[in-house]
From TrEMBL:
Residues 28-311 form the Tryptophan synthase beta chain-like PALP domain. SUPFAM superfamilies: Tryptophan synthase beta subunit-like PLP-dependent enzymes (SSF53686). PANTHER family: CYSTATHIONINE BETA-SYNTHASE. This is S-sulfocysteine synthase CysK2. Its cofactor is pyridoxal 5'-phosphate. The gene is cysK2. It comes from the Bacteria. Keywords: Pyridoxal phosphate. The keyword Membrane does not apply. It holds the Pfam family PALP.
Length: 378
């Protein structure tokens, strides 16, 4: 790493361009910075460009939160002042709280018992109502239980609107500006590494980048125990990435390969990022960094790799960054292997640690051929 010994005697930041004054908090969304990440993920001279979406007021989902609500109002699906109800593990909740404030709608975030206390408090402080389901659905897990509760709340509130981030194409389209920012910042991108939950940001950014970089390779990062890419549903400690349903925003055909990552591996990566690079985040950030570091070691020198870091570390101080909590869950003490395990088919066996598969297909066999082309056209 370059020693950050500035030649100039001016205080750090003195030469930074002065940002314009934001008149509304929504104007603070976007134009997020990029940080170069190398050791210990890659040897000196190799590394990847981390797009720090945690620099948005709420996180990466400020973008779809604002865009989905703006589009719903434009179409007339959401009347002025009508309530918004959505299922979220927290990040979209923050984006919707911002959209509610911006456009004047009350917001209810339906979540589960795994939501961090700090996220619960923050959402409440920002004016959202948080509704926590008590138990997982017997087949569809927590996500299905949350979705059923959303349906129940919508049924009881005429005019209420659910953006449905799992299936709403406006979620994907919201990331076109992020792709444009990456192109402006990096010029050319060869590999994009992105976590997958609803599938929105991987699909939207890849579609935007491919217009200028048609050879782009898209590496999807999922959690062990997630059903998205064809594994059976299992217990998931990691939040944000992964799912127990099959969101239709996942653009299966856009992916070159998928990696599943386990919680201890993500914890190791998050803590390394914090120590060595000051910038870190949550489960998806750790998992993405692990895989992007592998790409930086594996692809030829000069390959330009961008990785999306969806949020920052503060929400995870009592989990990922809490030694006692991590010890209780057996997440400390082992470094991830230098290479992932490999499987030829996504459902070949149940994966329990970092595993890679270069065969990606929709486990439900849905038609996705036109999805990339459609992203951003609504
Ligand atoms: C922190 C975090 N990382 C990653 C993701 C996955 O992003 P996407 O839903 O765009 O696939 C989410 C989704 O909620 C998230 O909250």
């Amino acid at each position: 790493m370059d020693p950050f010994l500035l030649e100039s005697l001016a205080p750090v930041g003195a030469d930074a361009p002065v940002s314009p004054i934001a008149r509304r908090p929504a104007h603070l969304v976007g134009n997020t910075p990029i940080l170069w990440i190398d050791e210990p993920f890659a040897p000196p001279g190799r590394g990847f460009h981390a797009k720090l979406e945690g620099a948005n007021p709420g996180g990466i989902k400020d973008r779809p939160g604002l865009h989905m609500i703006r589009e719903a109002r434009r179409r007339g699906d959401l009347a002025p002042g009508a309530p918004i109800v959505e299922s979220s593990s927290g990040t979209l909740g923050l984006g919707l709280a911002l959209a509610g404030l911006t456009y004047g709608h009350p917001v209810t975030v339906v979540t589960d018992q795994g939501m961090e206390v700090s996220m619960f408090r923050l959402l409440t402080a920002l004016g959202a109502h948080v509704d926590q389901v008590a138990a997982p659905h017997p087949d569809g897990g927590w996500q299905q239980a949350r979705r059923e509760r959303v349906a129940e709340l919508l049924g009881g509130a005429p005019g209420a609107y659910c953006p449905d981030q799992y299936h709403n194409p406006d979620n994907t389209a919201a990331y076109r500006p992020l792709a444009a920012e990456l192109l402006a910042q990096l010029g050319r991108i060869d590999v994009l590494v992105a976590a997958v939950g609803t599938g929105g940001h991987s699909a939207g950014i890849a579609a935007g980048l491919r217009e200028r970089c048609p050879g782009l390779r898209l590496i999807g990062v999922d959690a062990v125990g997630s059903t998205i890419f064809g594994q059976p549903a299992g217990p998931r400690l990691m939040r944000g990435l992964g799912s127990s349903i099959h969101p239709s925003n996942v653009d299966y055909q856009a992916f070159t390969e998928v990696h599943w990552v386990a919680p201890a591996e993500a914890v190791w990566a998050c803590r390394q990022l914090a120590r060595r690079h000051y910038a870190s985040g949550g489960w998806s950030v750790g998992a993405v960094a692990l895989v992007a570091g592998w790409a930086a070691r594996t692809y030829p020198a000069g390959t330009r790799i961008a990785a999306v870091f969806p949020d920052g570390p503060h929400r995870y101080l009592e989990t990922i960054y809490n030694d006692a909590w991590c010890r209780e869950h057996g997440l400390l003490g082992s470094e991830p292997p230098p290479q992932p395990d490999e499987i030829a088919e996504p459902d070949e066996c149940v994966v329990t640690g970092w595993t890679r598969c270069s065969r990606v297909r929709d486990p439900l066999g849905r038609e996705t051929a036109t999805k990339s082309a459609k992203a951003g056209t609504r």
